[in-house]
Description:
This protein has helices at about 5-10, 25-35, 90-110, 140-150, 165-170, 170-180; strands at about 15-20, 45-50, 65-70, 125, 130, 135-140, 155-160, 185-190. By secondary structure, the protein is of the alpha/beta class. The strands form 3 sheets. Strands 3-4-8-7 form a 4-stranded mixed sheet, covered by helices on one side. Strand 1 (about 15-20), helix 2 and strand 2 form a beta-alpha-beta unit.
Amino acid sequence: GRGTNVLASLYHKRRVVGIDCNPANVEKVKEVCDQYFSDQKNDYEIYHDDGVELNKWKDQSSVFDAVITDPPYVCKAEDYGCSDWDIGKLETDAYFEKIDTMMGNLSRLIKQSDHKNRTYHPIIIKVGSSRKGDTGIIDMDYEFQKIAYNHGLKLWDKVINRLENVWGNINAVRNYRHGYTQKNHETNLVFVRFDNL
Length: 197
């Protein structure tokens, strides 16, 4: 997206890898990093790549100290204007198959946490919910937790982000007339891996 996590990481003097499926986003983030963090050139890698398969690290494990990811919402809620890597274009079952693949790769690539020594390596995933026709809401929080547990990840924390979206206020009457709910929050799920895989 806008590369906020990359920029915040560099601001806090951390080494960071950024991946996005949209080449225009990747070029813009690289441009901003080069302009404002030129003294930290060795601290960032930005890739136009697939954030599910993570092929650059396919033969590695225990690579990352932390992961922050913001996958597209399920039910084709958004169009990211990118390649075949955009899982937001997929039908619900295919979408969750990709999330399963991503979670397996993240479980392999995140460093192991150690509760006794208070060492934590989080996988932080921002999720919400989507509505699919007359089937009701698909709660990404619930679905992601089920998938994560299948890959040996433990839910370590859950943080609710309150959205202060001005468009929500503008659309309130329209949403009421159409029976829509107002998107007022998103959830950050924080997973860790304690056991050896």
